[in-house]
Write a structure and sequence with these properties.
Layout: E1 2-9, H1 13-26, E2 31-35, H2 38-47, E3 55-60, H3 69-78, E4 87-91, H4 96-103, E5 108-111, H5 116-127
Parallel strand pairs: 1-2, 1-3, 3-4, 4-5
Helix pairs in contact: 1-5, 2-3
Length: 131
């Protein structure tokens, strides 16, 4: 896995930008790929020729058009080549059913914070998945 690459899958470009900036504030060594929905995220992952080039983390929103985070997570974790990539669901949802859904795949759900200080704290937690 590429220890410096994070895939951000979120339909909101502002959320992707803010998260990238927060992660880079915590640790400036990261590079990013972005996808606006689960279909583009899966297509990107499936286009990677070798597991050593997989991102160290996929940060996945739940509520997206085309292929949402729940669907992408289920497909990703059932794919023999991709299921080992760490995933964190990063969403505005704190719905107990979403948390249970993520737990069945051993994936954490981190609720998107509403201020910069909390976003940087969340970003600090996210980068630990790449170590």
């Amino acid at each position: 896995m590429d220890a410096n690459l994070i895939l951000l899958v979120d339909d909101d470009p502002d959320d992707r930008m803010l998260l990238k900036e927060a992660i880079l504030e915590v640790d400036g060594r990261f590079l990013f790929e972005e996808a606006p929905d689960g279909r583009h995220g899966l297509n990107y992952l499936r286009s990677i020729p070798s597991p050593d080039q997989y991102p160290c983390l996929v940060v996945l929103d739940i509520n997206m058009p085309i292929l949402d985070g729940r669907e992408m997570l289920a497909i990703l974790k059932s794919d023999p080549k991709l299921k080992f990539i760490p995933v964190v669901v990063f969403s505005t949802s704190s719905n107990p059913s979403d948390i249970r859904y993520c737990k069945q795949f051993n994936v954490d759900l981190v609720t998107k914070p509403f201020d910069i200080a909390m976003l940087e704290k969340a970003a600090g937690k996210l980068v630990t998945y790449c170590n």
